Amino acid sequence: MSVPMLKIGAVLSTMAMVTNWMSQTLPSLVGLNGTSISRGGTSERIVSALYPSPEEGWQIYSSAQDADGKCICTVVAPAQNMCNRDPRSRQLRQLMEKVQNISQSMEVLDLRTYRDLEYVKNTESLMKVVDGKLKVASENPRSLNPKGFQELKDKVAQLLPLLPVLDQYKNDAKMILRLREEVRNLSLVLMNIQEEMGAYDYEELRQRVLLLETRLHSCMQKLGCGKLTGVSNPITVRASGSRFGCWMTDTMIPSSDNRVWYVDGYFKGRRVLEYRTMNDFVKGQNFVQHSLQHPWAGTGHVVYNGSLYYNKYQSNIIVKYHFRSRSVLVQRSLSGAGYNNTFPYSWGGYSDIDLMADENGLWAVYTTISNAGNIVISRLEPQTLEVLQTWDTGYPKRSAGESFMICGTLYVTNSHLAGAKIYFAYYTNTSSYEYTDIPFHNQYSHISMMDYNPRERMLYTWNNGHQVLYHVTLFQVIKTSGD
């Protein structure tokens, strides 16, 4: 009786010691005293993402002062949550997962030990009876008659189920030793990481970075417009569809609409897929289908304030389709505009009329015969599609790969193929232009759609069956109240 109980006591004592060490020591080692480990191995998150996608965010590249003392800032929207990509952060998360797994194993051992201990307690009286009968039989062997021997045999048979319980205790004791060794190894690794990181609380630093990102994001929304000075490396979101197509999110500012729209092909199509979020689009799930009353031409569609604006096939008519009501609200002819591959971009594809939006509203980029094939810009009234104002850029549309508007400026690429760059800019606020030299990486060598989203300050592109994003760098002069 005493030997099994000693084994049980040793197992329980070891479990209590290791569990207490884990609960008190590990959080302080990794600087996560505010994170509690709950039953089942799950942890309470004390920091959550502050922007829809884990790869999105805001950052200041440089700042300076001009000759007049004005603050000049270059702000770009690269990747967010830099701490999440830090190798030490990944290593810490992996170690914490191991700790949680160990915690789960300890809880299982605790539950099993408690259950088996109750079983041992219940058999204690039976063991005392057997022990008494054995003593009597050993002192007076003749007192053990056949009936008494059978009773003793039956009592011993009732104790046989205790043997696998004791075997399980032996195995559990070995597991405790393994867990204790693994915890010791984790402790050494965590202390090395803590020494490498220094005296700072890593989680506190991460929270401060997230707070800074939130402030920068808010600042970006207040900064207003700027001049394009750079384009980031491409971010491939998904590989889907044919060589030509269009995809987009709502360009209206402000908007909390996170839906993504997907239009495959460049002529005679009617199907538009609507995904609930960007994550759903990446996974190809949670979408509904819209069937347009009129087929489209080209890939120059745009979503603005919950409606799709597109060029009706074999016409210069612009159609406004409202997604919620699934109906056409208005359609209007763009007077004199070429269509049906009369004045497309260099890649063709019925791209005569390109609709787009920026911080200043809704635009149409096209060409007329009277303008000798040069690009024309018209600002449109979103409700009626009436042309409010028009500019002749003087740049031949067939020499352009694609174009997009940022802050009332039309930027034009010189090709749709590899080696393309942003070559020309037309400023509608001054009716002037300049030749630029802004390179960007055309990763898949055939761009058939390139549009700017002012809400996210990103370029959306369709590149040879790949849906790709670019971050943009805008140069801005920020005037203080004393200027």
What does this structure look like?
With 483 residues, the chain is an alpha+beta fold. It folds into two domains: 2-53 and 83-208, no CATH class; 229-478, Tachylectin-2, Chain A (5 Propeller), CATH 2.115.10. It has helices spanning 2-30, 82-85, 87-122, 124-139, 146-159, 162-197, 202-223, 278-283, and strands spanning 59-65, 71-76, 227-231, 235-239, 245-249, 260-264, 271-275, 287-291, 302-304, 307-311, 317-322, 327-333, 354-358, 361-366, 374-380, 387-396, 403-406, 409-413, 421-427, 432-439, 447-453, 458-463, 466-478. The strands form five sheets. Strands 1, 2, 3, 4, 21, 22 and 23 form a seven-stranded antiparallel β-sheet that branches. α1 runs parallel beside α6 (162-197). The chain is elongated, with a radius of gyration of 36 Å.
Which features characterize this protein?
single chain, 483 residues, Tachylectin-2, Chain A, 2 domains, 7-stranded antiparallel beta sheet, 4-stranded antiparallel beta sheet, 8 helices, 23 strands, disordered N terminus
| CATH class call of the largest domain | Mainly Beta
User: Nearest-angstrom radius of gyration?
Assistant: 36 Å
Kindly report the CATH topology of the largest domain: Tachylectin-2, Chain A
- What is the average per-residue confidence, as pLDDT, rounded to a whole number? 78
Q: What multimeric state do the chains show?
A: single chain
Cα(first) to Cα(last) distance is 90 Å
What structural class do you assign from the helix and strand content? alpha+beta
Largest sheet: 7 strands, antiparallel
Strand content: 25-35%
Helix content: 25-40%
Report the CATH architecture of the largest domain.
5 Propeller
Number of strands: 23
Number of helices: 8
Gross morphology is elongated
